[in-house]
């Protein structure tokens, strides 16, 4: 018994010593302890030994692990002032403190969520891929928190005849461009290290050529020319979903409708396909296609429809993207995407073929094709789609990880931004016949799910 | 005295307790301990709680912090076999064990350093931005270790008349392309996630269109078309410097020559400027311009010349880049770059205007311009250039951090590679009149140092 106690004592002592050594190692040899987790971080640490501490290159190395962003203190006119006018145009009462105003719900709310995120305290932002800095000299990137999408819809769609609109989006856009062009940090790199949200496809249309060097956060490139927006320079944002998220588990038992669509029947450009699809589908018994406008009532009906349907139709709108895709995803209603030029958010981490069915426009218009193709999909396959939808759903809930994921996408642009800034400054000015561009091209070898 | 001892005891006890708490925190709350250093890492950890552990999206999130690379076990023909033929063509004796052969010194040795780096043990590679994996299914990227630049120079420049060359670079290139195209992981994404070195501007010329989807590690884009290479898709490598690194401190006292150049006087294309510069400069008393070919003797002379000169001339060669720039940098001889289309390695972290002087070709050819411009630069300014050169020198010493820096540049391409792979697969095939490309364009607003 005494021997056993002695052994236990010895074991305890050994454990304590091992623990102490391990603790010592963890604290005083921190970089090595992290090496399995982040080689870039280690690279940074190791390089400190060979570069003097005042080196600007060490600062540059750190960008890999921590991107520093400066939030412009924009005049209220471009932020809370827009909310104020939106409220006034809808009969709201003038507010004493504009910063107490609530941003109104609509489908392009990224501008609000990103702004609010950057104004949170540092301790609340410790998980963010971007660190806010108060000194612009320390910043890698500059965030311009103009509410460009809200600005577009401030005035009510139907205004009283003869009554002047309360607000001019165009004037505000021009004023913003002028304000930016007067800023030292904008002039320094012609805005290339600036980040601006333009999630409504028509946002900033009046001044887009004056801000096109910046990283634009957009819904698609439907209204942008090749030199104004690209996957390489910009970031695709998800719309703010407008229907309720589906809370129950995956399953097809309570989804009696094969295919559901509710939205505007008549649209311009790529959206012309909608009326043709209505004609093809409106007489199919297990298909629900309904014309509907944006209203609380329609949203409730759409929410219900998407929750009891296996597939949700996502045709192009006036531009290739539409809010409905994100409504479908959070409803676990498998999206059927008929929009040949659509761009999709976070596509570096999400393989959309796992959560959606892509159908080429010309194929979708063949009579009988869509419904027979969808009816042939087994319940097991639908469950697989639903399981994947459930896994990625959190990417599209602005309340949770969406904002961090957007910042991660922005942060990933930094090396190329820094390269182009350095390169632009030492480049010989030439009169090229075509612009000096670096491109990444699709090799058009994809296999279409519907083919 | 007793009180003092007691106080010391108490202080020691407090320090011990604080240490124990800190140790405990460091070991059992590891992610939080790193939060100040790497937000992306934390994002990854925090997301684990909301995603099931089997999720493939979790794996994707990790790419930010650790890029996994698979080293192809290429047939020896493409690696050590090339060294063997290079040796045989120079009268070497056949080797029993080809893997014991030494890679010969020349200016495009990145292919050797990267290959050797990936074959080091995991513990020796703990600081690398890329982690080697043995299972290709786990890999984000695939490294193809063909010695493409050595392959180009295997046969001696002057072969005996009537004697067949011992080796065919073209046949080896074609055999490599065939081998790759038979690989499952190549076929999966048409090589888009593959990494291939082609640092000699003529390397792989015969099969470049078959490997152009890959990340090419190149010296410049002089021999590549717009759809074959770009700053967005590819990585610019430094040449292996061929003169000795300057070991002494910064200073102008022992640098009596104003401007130094030694190299081929006659070159094709952009390099035609060399002969014109010779004519302008060869009679200036404090300028040394000498014709010289690649040899041990010339390298020794060039090394000496660069170490005793303030400025080193870097005109374009047959293509915009040349080894001499990197010789100048490690010699702390301020580079004077006259090559309008040059691309520079690691330009996201190095602002080359701090270490070099860029002169537009047409300006450099104005009689008297170059020497009077250089003579007007103060010793203080030259010292500033030298200090910056000394800080970045390690980027160009293949023995130290260059390899890790190349891997970091490669790793930064991954998000865009993943995006394009996912996007290509769900894209509707179309017959576009022009290729579907995403571009980043220079805004040509740079201010030229010489202007």
UniProtKB/TrEMBL annotation, chains A, B:
Residues 66-371 form the Exostosin GT47 domain. It is a single-pass type II membrane protein. Its main location: Golgi. Keywords: Glycosyltransferase, Golgi apparatus, Membrane, Signal-anchor, Transferase, Transmembrane, Transmembrane helix. GO terms for molecular function: glycosyltransferase activity. GO terms for cellular component: Golgi membrane. The chain crosses the membrane at residues 12-30. It holds the Pfam family Exostosin_GT47. It is found in: Golgi apparatus membrane. InterPro entries: Exostosin (IPR004263), Exostosin_GT47 (IPR040911). Belongs to the glycosyltransferase 47 family. PANTHER family: ARABINOSYLTRANSFERASE ARAD1-RELATED, EXOSTOSIN HEPARAN SULFATE GLYCOSYLTRANSFERASE -RELATED. This is Exostosin GT47 domain-containing protein.
